[in-house]
Amino acid sequence: MARIGFVLNPVAGMGGRVGLKGTDDVASRAVELGAQPIAPARALDTLRELKRRLLEETAPLALDWVTCSDDMGADTLAAAGFANRRIVAEGRAPFCATDTKDATRRFLEAGVDLILFCGGDGTARDIASIAGIRVPLLGIPSGVKMYSGVFGVTPARTAEILIGFLKGELALDSEEVLRAIHMTDDEVPIDIVLHTPGGLVLATLQIARAICHRKGKVSVFVPHYAMSGSTLIALAADEIVMCPHSVLGPIDPQVDKYPAVSLIKVVEQKPIAEIDDETLIMADVARKALTQVRDAACELLGEHMAPEQAAAIAEKLSNGTWTHDYPIPAAQAKALGLPVTTEMPEAFLELMTLYFQPVRVGRGGVEYLPVPHRKEAASS
Asked: Looking at 109-118, 119-128, 196-205, 260-269, which range is the least confident one?
């Protein structure tokens, strides 16, 4: 029997409906502006779809839920028809990040196999700051900002992923990639398609170091974007193939929900007597994280260029010159000194059409026919 921790951030996503860039720390303001909760409905859709799929399975998949009281989990599980639930944390208004973190600690103490949560990037960061890599995390998309790769693209897709996990059909992505690399002869060239907003430094560095020292050529293809940790993987390649509009991203580490560089600046610019202990601790962690990421990038780049050039690029990408979500297009990446080419084969763009994309409900702002359009030959 799988034990799943479930936590719901009831205020996630409310800020976006009233023009706020998220709901972190401004939930009361969102309510004042007339925002209505959307996360409970998203979570209920996912849990009902999960219940339906469980009933369709020929072999029973038993679930043991541990959750929070009331609006932060128990009520939604009950509404979806899950009776086997145990409350291990309190969840009452007003909701804040501390509630989510406390729930995560209780889940870990209860020995959960996976944490399912409903929220946005802020909720994901709060949970990851406590859980780390000890258990897998799976997010039901409900926030204003959702750049993390931990989210299912829709509630239905999230339920499908969870079913795969319960059936033992899913492995952690980094493990699968590492196995594939190690099973490939060292002299054989490898092509890697990167299409991700990033991930854990642990996983990305493992993959990057696995490809960095290979004898065969390693080419990374970025049809659309490879941000944050996936940029670290790109730095390890012999060649980075991008479209002119494709982007990489900065690799400055994030500590809790703050950029490491910004935390360091706080303790440098304010009198220490005015800084609380938690911020001082986070700034210490930030210094270590920044040094580790910069040194790792320098190590990866040093396999393909002079040490001075590698150090300069690593510094530029990690020192907080840009915000963490700043898009670095192909031309700018090449100007930095990265081995970028824009000769993207059509086959890789066609490959992207085979992967599931979220279904948009209602009329979109852009209409087009998703087929190649060629200039007509002039008639003679």
From this structure: 196-205
| Contact in structure between 316 and 251 (CB atoms under 8 Å) | no
Which phi and psi (to 5°) does residue 228 adopt?
55, -120
Going by C-alpha positions, the residue among 286, 221, 242 that lies closest to residue 260 is: 286
Residue 153 DSSP one-character state: S
With respect to residue 379, please indicate whether it lies within any of the assigned structural domains.
no
Angle at 249 between CA 26 and CA 155, to 5 degrees: 55
* Number of structural domains found in the chain: 2
pLDDT confidence of residue 299: 95
β-bridge pairing 258-259 and 254-255: antiparallel
Which residue, of 120, 139, 166, is where some domain finishes?
166
* Whether 220 contacts 241, CB under 8 Å: yes
Bridge-based pairing of strands 63-68 and 85-89 is parallel
Tokens read off for 196: 């991700």
Question: Looking at residue 151, what DSSP letter applies?
Answer: B
Q: Using omega within 30 degrees of 0 as the cis cutoff, is the peptide bond preceding 370 cis?
A: no
Residues of the domain holding 96: 2-166
Q: Among 179-193, 204-218, 302-316, 366-380, which is the least confidently predicted range?
A: 366-380
Which band of pLDDT confidence, cut at 50, 70 and 90, is reported for residue 363?
very low
**In this structure, what CATH number is given to the domain that contains residue 89?**
3.40.50
Same domain, 96 and 241: no
> Is there a domain that residue 200 lies in?
yes
Strand order of the β-sheet with 114-119 is 85-89, 63-68, 2-8, 114-119, 137-141
Its pTM stands at 0.59
Question: What span, in angstroms and rounded, lies between the C-alpha atoms of 215 and 195?
Answer: 25
pLDDT average, residue stretch 97-125: 91
What is the distance between the alpha carbons of residues 21 and 348, in angstroms, rounded to a whole number?
34
Question: 23, 120 in Cβ contact below 8 A?
Answer: yes
**Per-residue pLDDT tens over the stretch 318-354:** 999 999 999 999 999 999 999 999 999 998 888 887 6
